[in-house]
Input
Amino acid sequence: MTALTLSTAGAATLRADALVVGVAKAAGPKGGLVVAPGAEAVDKAFGGKLAAVLETLGARGAEGEVTKAVSPSGLKAPFVLAVGLGTAPAADEAYDAEVLRTAAGNAARALHGIKKAAFALPIEAAEDIEAIGEGALLGAYAFTAYQDRGPDAKGPLAEVTLLGAKPRDKAHKAAVERSLALTEEINRARDLINTPPNDLTPEAFAAVVSAAGKEHGLKVQVLDEKALEKGGFGGILGVGIGSENPPRLVKITYTHAKNAKHLALVGKGITYDSGGISLKPAGHNETMKCDMSGAAAVFAAVVAAARLGLEVNVTGWLALAENMPSGSATRPGDVLRMYSGKTVEVLNTDAEGRLVLADALWKASEEKPDAIVDVATLTGAMVLALGDHTFGIMANDDAFRTAIHEIAEESGEQSWPMPLPANLRKTMDSPTADLANMGVRMGGGLVAGLFLKEFVGEGITWAHLDIAGPAYNEGAPHGYTPKGGTGSSVRTLVRLAERTASGDLG
Output
């Protein structure tokens, strides 16, 4: 894991392998290049002509832009890396946290193989330290566990030193500690998502959670296939019955003695999704190891809450199964009796996530938490609706849905509130069972949300995050987002836990 430190040393005197500065486009019609605050000493070493030098090298200050310049004799670092921040804010305004987070991520990715980099980006408050730290540590992530890279292979940026902060300031120190705890858990979630499904079975995932529980003093309970059958978890068993790797329901609990508020998080953990008997077509199977991203996010959020010592009780429920076709697999037309007692006619075995979540939601509801949030790579329909970077939010309470949307925005995650139209519920009516696991095709993401709503205990505030788009990046890396597993929604869930602890959610 990349190290993160604060330093009071000046940019000109600190020994590092690279210096990172920010540049932006000046506001107004002329729009020349300007050096962002924090890099004054670097600009002075260039004789006040850093912007002119970078412009000569092609820099324009656009977000995502990275420009390298050889350092003059006045700097200890051999080169300067300038990252674009977009249009400079007005004199009385600060740079947006997400702009800083993204710029730091771009810099960290560009500095792969470098041992130590000093970041001289704009810092006006502890929130800026947190954003830059998060961006740098997330941007430096690399998943290489299955690569024979040889002794000369370059690794991620090893150390990030933030300049312009105050190492002895309590708020600044807390910002670093939060950045470290949060990013380490997000990167752990990314590792799980990227792990091949032949190694990350439900049993193996449960073992990882148990080990983390021991490490951080969390209570972990694992229900195996025998316990699930005895308990009547027909949804989880129905999905996992076709696989040689049996399902698990994992409960991981963080409690804090000073707060009675209880937040329950439920994650979809399909460690591999073939579609079951309703087999996915060719070209849609290759990345289905990522179908456990919701469970990974929930796991990461609970551990992060514990590491941060948040004054709130957080319970994570991980519904783990492998959806495979075989002679024992659930068939289209089968009827499952869920943990809640309701019966569900399975019309499509590739609509399996809602089945495992239904059992976990009802189990979580038995503890009567103040709120339940489930997270899942649930529907392709949500990707069609919102694209690859935005997750949808549905809820049985409009104020709660709005609050989560605002929290996601604060955290730098793109989300959008989605409705639960009552008229779509009847499309899941079944002549055989209490309901079917499918409804009309149009609005399929909303239909899935309505299905889940049926399994939330009465009077419990609930929200559903469909992260099917942003959970796994099949394209090129960008900002602090790598190719592969992203850790989507972890920041939102942790911020939600913090808000719950502080009483901001009522």
Remarks:
- The longest helix spans residues 170-194.
- Residues 70 and 183 are 31 Å apart (CA to CA).
- The radius of gyration is 24 Å.
- The first strand starts at residue 3 and ends at 7.
